[in-house]
């Protein structure tokens, strides 16, 4: 492979909840190239094409060689470094979602077992190559990347997975709470929604709702509500010619100025600038 490094940060425009791709990349590392110690707020899989290096998770150290994969879990202190004499070449994909932890558990790939043995499977290499040929995915890029992520995880399950039952009661219960909350937001985004109201609807404590949102969706309930409303506002401004005031009212903001401030904070431009761009 002739590519030295490629990095792709994915701008998600759809409200995927089961799995969501955040980034992917490829690097032919220099000797002693390193990252960390640090934490991520999503899952990050590295697959080593060639060479070797060291991966550290909290107080454990792992020697990684070609055709092995290692996993960084959300909010777990980790670091890694390329070998001095035989630095690795690897590809990676970062993701999260309601089903991410469950799917990885099926592959026996998790916080307790963050390193997979050598995976002799050319289809995994092919999937990573396709992930990093992202510039060729002109139409429906985000959906195609998501499809490749599902293919990757399914191959990991087939090659390394335990035969644990898919229905882990605790995980399914938490996922049920999240889906119930998201369904409420989808049906009520046109008005003001408080986190307390959301927790009462789901039937759990507000602090517990916050903790499972952070664990399963990597954001707080309040930020999820705002993100959902802003996405709906984007859709309205792309597809219709209604005023900013009407857009604000449609996504639950009585004050168009407050809506504009939140929109600009999230999107980097004002609603008027966004609307103007799509009316050219």
TrEMBL record:
One of its GO terms (molecular function) is sequence-specific DNA binding. Gene3D superfamilies: Homeodomain-like (1.10.10.60), Regulatory protein AraC (2.60.120.280). SMART domains: HTH_ARAC. It comes from the Bacteria. Keywords: DNA-binding, Transcription, Transcription regulation. InterPro entries: AraC-bd, Homeodomain-like_sf, HTH-like, HTH_AraC, HTH_AraC-typ_CS, Tscrpt_reg_AraC-type_HTH. Residues 179-277 form the HTH araC/xylS-type domain. The keyword Transport does not apply. CDD domains: cupin_MmsR-like_N. The keyword Repeat does not apply. This is DNA-binding domain-containing protein, AraC-type. It comes from Halobacteroides halobius (strain ATCC 35273 / DSM 5150 / MD-1). The lineage of its organism: Bacteria, Bacillati, Bacillota, Clostridia, Halanaerobiales.
